[in-house]
Design a protein that fits this description.
Its main location: Golgi. 27% of the residues lie in helices and 14% in strands. The chain is α/β, with parallel strands linked by helices and 431 residues long. It has one domain (3-427): TIM Barrel. Strand 7 and strand 8 (206-211) form a beta hairpin. Helix 3 crosses helix 4. The longest helix has 19 residues, at 381-399.
Length: 431
């Protein structure tokens, strides 16, 4: 992939103006893979993390809506809070908000089609599907024992059959015991299974991979996969190649993890500035400068807020209020302000952590379960902010006001046009 970027000085806060006031970069070729290609349509620059782990009785029983209350890892704190209790849908959900569509099944065809239409209508072109590996591997599931492989297959099939313009990128999740050999095997599996589909986002003909908790593998192991070499696990220049984005958490992750591992770029994921260095918008100008100077792609993650109080009652320090959409707008302004060329959204539908932008409705307390709502605003408030921000991203890129990039793509014409430690972030993740 080739991304040619032209940047002016960035302006959106005093801290950021100070950090980047001397930065004027022109004619910078990022990610030095040369290829000819056309301009990427604005909607394909907006990616939303998408979770397929939900079910309800008609699909075989409740999953995730009945999530258990998780214990703290510190025994001294663990005893101070309830844990092990499961929520009881449909009245008492694990989420601080109640879905407009009710507690649904991710395997419902009509539901998937509704999600795809909604994404298209509100400026989201890429669904980043959470995936834990092939179902036959031991430990290949989330904390609630759900494997999403078949569900991913169904989403891709719905895109193919309905002609939806939404495309899929992969979110590789950190199942137990993941090694470089397993990653290579996973990439081989996905490549063989989906090589022929038009439903994938492709950059220079290659799929896009977000790698959650990438720090759990040493940089040297990633380098055997992602830095071109003659070893048996190397994917560069092979059918298993792709655009790989690692997770930036701590201040020095760029030099200590992203660069030596061979990632093409990085993302920040978290929707709370209390979780990591990377999730704090005041750090984004320096991270963007670092990325540009090393030919990496910075994909900041924006989110509406964070509230996992129901499943982690001990994690109040990480909560981030929504402020009637103000928090979400602030994140978007920060991403646009640093000249981001691709923006990821945390999340479309991670209801357990309260990061969803999917429509929610007010609901009276039932069985002791209380819910927040988007009122006095519309249930579609966060989708509307997304649509407006997606349009602004496209406008800025087209005008060159804050950054203009031409991304070379190929393979699919439909794509054109509270803690700074990784341990802390890991402990608040519902993966």
């Amino acid at each position: 992939m080739t991304i040619i970027c032209y940047f002016n000085a960035f302006k959106f806060s005093e801290i950021m103006r100070t950090a980047v006031s001397v930065l004027v970069i022109t004619a910078l070729a990022m990610l030095a893979r040369q290829t000819e290609g056309s301009e990427v349509a604005p909607m394909y620059r907006v990616h939303a993390f998408y979770y397929m782990w939900y079910t309800e009785p008609r699909a075989g029983g409740w999953t995730h809506w009945d999530h258990e209350v998780l214990p703290h890892w510190d025994a001294n704190i663990k005893g101070k809070f309830p844990h092990g209790i499961r929520f009881e849908p449909p009245d008492c959900l694990h989420s601080p908000y109640y879905p407009l569509r009710g507690p649904y099944s991710s395997m419902d065809r009509e539901l998937i089609q509704q999600h795809l239409k909604e994404m298209e209508a509100y400026g989201i072109g890429v669904l980043v599907a959470s995936w834990w590996g092939p179902p036959w591997r031991k430990g290949s599931h989330d904390t609630q024992m759900v494997n999403t492989d078949k569900r991913l297959e169904q989403v891709i099939r719905e895109i193919e059959e309905t002609g939806s313009p939404v495309r899929v990128a992969f979110h590789l999740e950190p199942y137990e015991g993941r090694t470089k050999e397993h990653v290579y095997e996973d990439l081989t599996y996905l490549t063989k299974k989906y090589m022929g589909t038009h439903a994938l986002l492709r950059v220079n003909g290659q799929p896009v991979y977000y790698v959650y908790d990438s720090y759990k593998l040493p940089p040297g192991d990633w380098a055997q996969l992602l830095v071109r070499n003659d070893g048996p696990w190397n994917v560069r220049g092979t059918p298993q190649d792709g655009l790989f984005l690692g997770l930036w958490l701590d201040k020095d992750d760029g030099e200590q993890h992203i660069l030596p591992a061979g990632f093409d770029g990085f993302y920040t994921y978290f929707s709370s500035d209390q979780v990591s260095y990377g999730s704090r918008v005041e750090n984004w100008p320096l991270m963007q400068m670092w990325a540009i100077g090393r030919n990496k792609l910075f994909v900041p993650s924006v989110g509406p807020g964070y509230n996992d109080a129901k499943i982690r009652p001990w994690n109040k320090v990480s909560q981030r209020t929504r402020g009637d959409g103000g928090s979400y707008r602030t994140y978007w302004a920060a991403a646009l302000g640093v000249g981001a060329q691709v923006v990821s959204i945390t999340s479309y539908n991670e209801w357990g952590e309260g990061t969803q932008i999917e429509p929610a409705i007010p609901r009276e307390p039932r069985d002791g379960c209380q819910y927040l709502s988007y009122e006095p605003n519309s249930p579609y408030l966060y989708m509307e902010i997304t649509r407006n921000s997606s349009r602004e991203l496209g406008r800025l890129i087209a005008s060159g006001e804050k950054g203009m990039c031409t991304m070379g793509i190929g393979g699919d014409a439909n794509n054109a046009g509270g803690s700074e430690s990784s341990e802390g972030a890991d402990n608040v993740s519902d993966k």
